[in-house]
UniProtKB/TrEMBL annotation:
<keyword id="KW-0539">Nucleus</keyword>
<keyword id="KW-0156">Chromatin regulator</keyword>
<dbReference type="GO" id="GO:0010557">
    <property type="term" value="P:positive regulation of macromolecule biosynthetic process"/>
</dbReference>
<dbReference type="InterPro" id="IPR000286">
    <property type="entry name" value="HDACs"/>
</dbReference>
<feature type="domain" description="Histone deacetylase">
    <location>
        <begin position="26"/>
        <end position="421"/>
    </location>
</feature>
<keyword id="KW-0804">Transcription</keyword>
<feature type="compositionally biased region" description="Low complexity">
    <location>
        <begin position="158"/>
        <end position="169"/>
    </location>
</feature>
<dbReference type="InterPro" id="IPR037138">
    <property type="entry name" value="His_deacetylse_dom_sf"/>
</dbReference>
<keyword id="KW-0378">Hydrolase</keyword>
<dbReference type="InterPro" id="IPR023801">
    <property type="entry name" value="His_deacetylse_dom"/>
</dbReference>
<comment type="similarity">
    <text>Belongs to the histone deacetylase family. HD type 1 subfamily.</text>
</comment>
<feature type="region of interest" description="Disordered">
    <location>
        <begin position="110"/>
        <end position="170"/>
    </location>
</feature>
<dbReference type="Pfam" id="PF00850">
    <property type="entry name" value="Hist_deacetyl"/>
</dbReference>
<keyword id="KW-0805">Transcription regulation</keyword>
<feature type="compositionally biased region" description="Basic and acidic residues">
    <location>
        <begin position="115"/>
        <end position="126"/>
    </location>
</feature>
<dbReference type="GO" id="GO:0031507">
    <property type="term" value="P:heterochromatin formation"/>
</dbReference>
<dbReference type="GO" id="GO:0141221">
    <property type="term" value="F:histone deacetylase activity, hydrolytic mechanism"/>
</dbReference>
């Protein structure tokens, strides 16, 4: 008999949304997604999971990331913050170049500065001002939790001085460029105001999702935790990459492995190869990383992810790369996931010691604004995820995370539809009608060109560009054979 399914959803406060909306690659995406979810009241069938920024410490971040890199990332940068506060207060003077993206956000969004009272209230909600509640004392030991930790621990010694200098202290542009280049904080990963807070939020949201899942798992149920703010799969130990500054996925998996979940199946559905996670666990036979991604050797970011890259040492075979060509259809996507994930779930991990972590990037949708590589539709992707991953034979718990996706209304629709379908798995009577975008939706205007319909003409598969699926049956069979022959247990 199948266990009941319970769903937990990260609950972002307005301040959290304001900060995550600043991510240059996905401006306003968090607010637009959260707004649509709440317009349909989809959160009502979920346990809401609070973000606790105050619990993210340097030690926690350094459980994967390089100490000096974290120190540099978490520096306060008064000039950027000053510009940000000025901007929020409507003072348009001297907004520097790095701030152009945030200016745009403020123009099209309706964010307003929080009053100091609201600010204090939000800090309280997020555990920044409070003592740690008793029930979290145990976790505190594991994760070494205190807000002070981030600012005072591990003060740099003089030998580390080159990394302790604030960027603003550099006198020449060359020097500035060198340190930014060292950590890849240039091009697609610029420093931006509120970056330290953003890092704490992304990390905390995934860690708290994992903690919720572990707590729920004692109740003889299948917990499904959802955090659309997470899924930053490219970040490396000492380097930002592809819009990702810290790798919340690796940090979440590390946390899970300190609990009864000794084995983890990580599945990455983003159009791009999940290189940061694969690299982090390439020597592990306890964490199997499976990435379905578009691959064009040497020509498509992150320029790796071939089927031959299979992990090393004890981890040999536990890195599973599915490199795919242009035009991937819903049908072929489903066949592949079924052929690779179903046997993996059967053979890897016991009922009580294994968990699935799923990165739900949606830049493989046919109408993604930046990448028009595959022919996947929202309903096609969601149906495959539900059928072959979430409702898995062993009822492994699942943590669902966000990821890439560069059309904000695609993201809000995809993650809403995913949540609606998950709610139905939890209780078939949960069947919210998504036909019309609710009139009270704050971002209603964004859906105007599709007549305020959820399934507008631009996201129906009939409208797909019909790019040819270059993934032939022979090619897919060959990939599946290679992976299956590795016999991962
Ligand atoms: Zn991507």
């Amino acid at each position: 008999m199948r266990k009941p399914v319970v769903i937990g959803l990260i609950d972002p406060t307005p301040q959290v949304l304001e900060i995550t909306d600043n991510l240059p690659s996905n401006e306003l995406r968090s607010s637009i997604t959260h707004s649509l979810i709440t317009s349909y009241n989809l959160q009502e069938s979920c346990d809401m999971i609070a973000i606790r920024r105050g619990k993210v410490t340097r030690k926690l971040l350094q459980s994967f990331h390089d100490k000096k890199y974290i120190r540099f990332l978490m520096k306060s940068r008064p000039q950027l913050e000053e510009d940000y506060n000025d901007y929020k207060l409507g003072n348009k003077r001297n907004i520097n170049d790095g701030w152009e993206s945030c200016r745009k956000i403020r123009k099209i969004g309706n964010a307003r500065p929080l009053s100091s009272k609201e600010d204090e209230q939000k800090k309280d909600e997020e555990g920044m001002n409070n003592e740690t509640p008793d029930e979290d004392k145990q976790d505190e030991d594991k994760l070494a939790l205190s807000e002070e930790d981030l600012s005072s621990e591990d003060e740099p010694s003089s030998s580390e001085s080159e990394n302790s200098i604030d960027l603003n202290d550099y006198s020449t542009n060359d020097e500035k460029h060198q340190i930014l280049e060292k950590y890849s904080l240039i091009y697609d990963c610029p420093l931006f105001p509120t970056l330290p807070d953003y890092i704490k939020i992304v990390t905390s949201s995934t860690i708290e999702s994992c903690k919720w899942l572990v707590k729920q798992s004692t109740n003889n149920c299948q917990p499904i935790a959802i955090n659309w703010l997470g899924g930053r799969h490219h970040a490396k130990r000492a380097k930002a990459s592809g819009f990702c500054y810290v790798n919340d996925i690796v940090l979440g998996i590390q946390y899970l492995r300190t609990t009864k979940y000794k084995k983890v199946i990580y599945i990455d559905l983003d159009l791009h190869y999940g290189d940061g996670v694969a690299e982090a666990f390439k020597y592990s036979n306890k964490v199997v990383t499976v990435s379905f991604h578009y691959h064009d050797a040497g020509l498509f970011f992150p320029f790796c992810g071939s089927v031959e890259e299979r992990g090393q040492g004890n981890g040999e075979n536990y890195c599973v790369n599915i490199p795919l060509k242009q035009g991937l259809s819903n049908g072929n996507f489903e066949k592949l996931v079924k052929s690779i994930i179903t046997p993996l779930i059967e053979e890897f991990g016991g009922v009580n010691d294994c968990v699935i972590v799923l990165q739900c990037g949606l830049d493989g949708l046919f109408n993604d604004q930046h990448f028009k590589k595959w022919n996947l539709s929202i309903d096609g992707m969601v149906s495959t995820i539900i059928k072959h991953i979430v409702t898995n034979e062993k009822q492994f718990p699942v943590v669902l995370l966000g990821g890439g996706g560069y059309s904000n209304t695609n993201s809000s629709r995809f993650w809403c539809f995913m949540l609606k379908e998950l709610s139905k798995v939890s209780n078939p009577l949960n069947n919210v009608d998504l036909t019309n975008i609710p009139m009270e939706e704050k971002f209603l205007d964004l859906y105007e060109n599709e007549s305020h319909l959820f399934w507008g003409v631009n996201n129906s598969l009939q409208k797909a560009s019909m790019r040819k699926d270059l993934n032939s049956t022979e090619y897919l069979q060959e990939i599946v054979k290679i992976i299956r022959d590795r016999n991962i247990k």
